[in-house]
Amino acid sequence: MTTIFSRQDGLPQVSRDLSQQSVAAGSQGAGGGGSIGGCLVHMLKVENVSSHAAPEPGSAPNVDPNATKSQLASLATKSATGSDALQGTLTSADAVAKLQESYANLKQELAKVIVGQQGVLEELIVAVLAGGHCLIVGVPGLGKTLMVRTLAETLGLSFNRIQFTPDLMPADITGTEVIQEDKLSGLRELRFLHGPVFANIVLADEINRTPPKTQAALLEAMQEHQVTIGGHRHPLPEPFFVLATQNPIEQEGTYPLPEAQRDRFLFEVRIDYPEEQEEFEIVRRTTSRKHASVQRVLDAETLAQLQGLVRDVPVADHVIYYAMALVRATRRAQGEVPKFVQDYVTWGAGPRASQSLILAAKGRAVLQGRDCVGISDVQAVAVPVLRHRVITNFAAEADGITSDEIVRRLIESIPTDPAASHLADHLAPLIRVK
Q1: How many CA atoms lie within 13 A of 139 on its CB side?
Q2: Cα gap 284→35, rounded to integer Å
Q3: Helix residue ranges, H only, 292-350
Q4: What is the DSSP string of 33-63?
Q5: For the segment 50-86, what is each residue's pLDDT rounded down to a tens digit?
Q6: N or C: which terminus of the chain carries fewer CB neighbours within 10 A?
Q7: Predicted pLDDT of residue 377
Q8: What is the DSSP letter of 328?
């Protein structure tokens, strides 16, 4: 099989034969999950394919037909930076392997305390790598608080818990200025006392039990990673994450989060009841004298480097267009959307959802040991990214249709093959497969 990339709009021509194994992987990347195909498309966006002068029209760069996946990814990185040297070690295959090793150690340590919930833990770790916040929804007694505290311990990050109550004030979260007298000079001055928000991981426990005025105290912290008190900005420690919890079954005396604040959470993570064997293990562990302790796997500096690695993961244009198509299909007021969206959706997701899909897909791809994002990565994170951003109407509630079901139907209805959808308008001039 031969993949031909023709020169269009100033892009260089690249023509090469791939081995059967590479072709298979590339096809998965174009359709749903591989990485080589995505990396090659990413390379085409750059005028300078190598660190040398761009090839003349009709010529092809010197690409080894037997190049491995990591070599192709390195070539893509060179083309994006215009240099033979990688930008440090974070974009190399070694860094991806190191992250996988850290992820394996992290799961091993978490398993000492947390029984089961592997999908939930993976979503939390993906959110941390992507630098996003999480809204954790689950009934009481499922270990939400324990899970967040244990994750902070294994990551080597500072941790504060805020119990949200109806009488909680904004200053109880962000901190306040107090008048302090100097015992030597007798002078009085204002001194800022840090609130519990000044930590790497902040657990906002039962965030919907406090009034909107206090909920809004987290908005600046979540978006800008700072708080402003008395006209002075106070930066928060990096990395900074807000992991908030909600109880879905008790609504009396609660204040639902405004949509603007819900949109700032990368994921809405839902925790379900454990399986029978998992519940047996939970009871056995927690009713004895023994208490498991976890070891630190990472630290703040290493985590910041891994977050940079996630940001550097290349994404092919057709994967971005797919994520956009998924989000835009939720907006009933924009263009043609599926009938079930017209029937059941009041408000769709905004542009921040598209950004969140790509960031989360990058984090998942790296955790899976791949250096490029595939459509399958976008599909895997679509439900936790979109479930709190798609607002259903009364008809959906009457028919038992949830936002999760809407997202799953969209995944089934939107084509993943660029040639089979309107995405071909953007990609057809660039790619032709024989």
Answers
A1: 4
A2: 43
A3: 300-312, 317-328, 339-344
A4: S-SHHHHHHHHHT-S-SSSSPPPPTT-----
A5: 333 444 434 434 444 444 444 444 444 443 333 333 3
A6: C
A7: 92
A8: H
pTM over 0.70: yes
Partners of residue 41 on adjacent β-strands: none
User: How far apart (Å, rounded) are the C-alpha atoms in residues 103 and 170?
Assistant: 36
Torsion of CA 356, 113, 117, 130, to 10 degrees: 10
Calpha distance 319→292 (Å, rounded): 42
Instruction: Phi first, then psi: give them for residue 202, nearest 5 degrees.
Output: -110, 120
* Euclidean distance between CA atoms 37 and 121, whole angstroms: 29
Of 193, 189, 199, 160, residue with least CA distance to 175: 193
CB atoms within 10 A of CB 140: 10
The residue ranges of the chain whose pLDDT is under 50 are 1-91, 421, 424, 426-434
Structure confidence by residue, pLDDT tens digits, 305-339:
888 888 888 888 889 999 998 999 898 877 678 88
Retrieve residue 222's tokens.
Answer: 């979540």
Token pair for 267: 């994921």
Distance CA 73, CA 90 (A): 13
Q: Are 56 and 399 in contact (CB under 8 A)?
A: no
Alpha-carbon distance of 14 to 7, in angstroms, equals: 8
Tell me if 102 sits within 8 A of 297, measured CB to CB. yes
What number of other Cβ atoms are within 10 A of residue 67's Cβ?
17
H or E element, residue 80? helix 69-81
Strands 226-229 and 134-137: unpaired
